[in-house]
């Protein structure tokens, strides 16, 4: 499997705090079946996280350390770009890393301020040659209240990532509910760990993979955990299933009286 959203390289952002922590994360990930990881360090306008050439060198060094420790995982460079009102200006400055230097750009949003003009933002990003991947959308309050925001985003050209822990109920009932609605309606393209440490928010993915196989089939699981992520790191085009607009099921009595 390939994890396209992870904070494994130590002392970069709010992810792994030490080399020992990072190596333990790598061992956990390997045991879960992960063989490639995109290190998506936060790119945040208000925090002095490592970036640019320094980030590149840190990733290169960490890959060498993984080899020395006989951990057969390859780590790729990337950023998780934090949304702000001047995001288009930030994108045009090109100081961040896309996922393995591809056209795919991972974007997260403030937890309580999902932009109302998100479709316009996606359009502006697309015309600049990038494909936006919206990170852990199941966590945002606005999406929990109206999942069809995501339907509109996909139709505008965005791709969608959900955290593996959300699908199996480890991020609360609302995140679990939304994740399953999105799965049922072809509105997820990647499942990733968003792991930050070896003890809390670990790179756990196997239980979710097995759940997807049982509920949706092995082909769907391979697409979400391996095939689409592989196309990202290889900078290839991703063909998606058509999303289905979500409609709340009517209660029994409403259905009865409608007849």
TrEMBL record:
Record keywords, A-Z: Hydrolase, Protein phosphatase
Catalysed reactions listed for this entry: O-phospho-L-tyrosyl-[protein] + H2O = L-tyrosyl-[protein] + phosphate
InterPro entries, sorted: Caps_polysacc_synth_CpsB/CapC (IPR016667), Pol/histidinol_Pase-like (IPR016195)
An MF annotation (GO) of this entry: manganese ion binding
The UniProt record lists the keyword Hydrolase: yes
Pfam families given in the database record: CpsB_CapC
Entry EC number(s): 3.1.3.48
Coiled-coil regions, chain positions: none
PANTHER family: TYROSINE-PROTEIN PHOSPHATASE YWQE
Similarity comment: family membership: Belongs to the metallo-dependent hydrolases superfamily. CpsB/CapC family.
Protein name: protein-tyrosine-phosphatase
Lineage, opening ranks: Bacteria, Bacillati, Bacillota, Clostridia, Peptostreptococcales
């Amino acid at each position: 499997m390939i994890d396209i959203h992870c904070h494994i390289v130590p002392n970069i952002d709010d992810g792994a705090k030490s080399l020992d922590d990072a190596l333990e994360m790598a061992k956990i990930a390997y045991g879960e079946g992960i063989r490639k990881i995109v290190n998506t360090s936060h790119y945040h306008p208000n925090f002095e996280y490592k970036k640019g050439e320094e980030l590149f060198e840190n990733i290169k060094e960490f890959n060498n350390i993984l080899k020395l420790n006989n951990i057969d995982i390859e780590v790729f460079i990337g950023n998780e770009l934090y949304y702000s009102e001047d995001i288009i200006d930030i994108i045009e400055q090109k100081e961040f890393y896309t996922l393995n230097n591809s056209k795919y750009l991972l974007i997260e949003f403030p937890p309580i301020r999902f932009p109302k003009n998100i479709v316009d933002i996606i359009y502006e990003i697309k015309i600049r040659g990038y494909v936006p991947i919206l990170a852990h959308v199941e966590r945002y309050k606005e999406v929990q209240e109206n999942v069809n925001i995501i339907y509109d985003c996909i139709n505008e050209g965005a791709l969608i990532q959900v955290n593996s822990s959300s699908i199996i109920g480890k991020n609360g009932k609302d995140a679990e509910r939304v994740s399953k609605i999105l799965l049922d309606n072809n509105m997820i393209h990647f499942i990733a760990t968003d792991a930050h440490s070896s003890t809390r928010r670990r790179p756990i993915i196997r239980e979710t993979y097995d759940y997807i196989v049982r509920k949706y089939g092995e082909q769907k699981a391979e697409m979400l955990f391996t095939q689409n992520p592989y196309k990202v790191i290889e900078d290839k085009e991703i063909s998606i299933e058509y999303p289905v607009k979500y409609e709340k099921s009517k209660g029994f009595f409403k259905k009865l009286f409608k007849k």
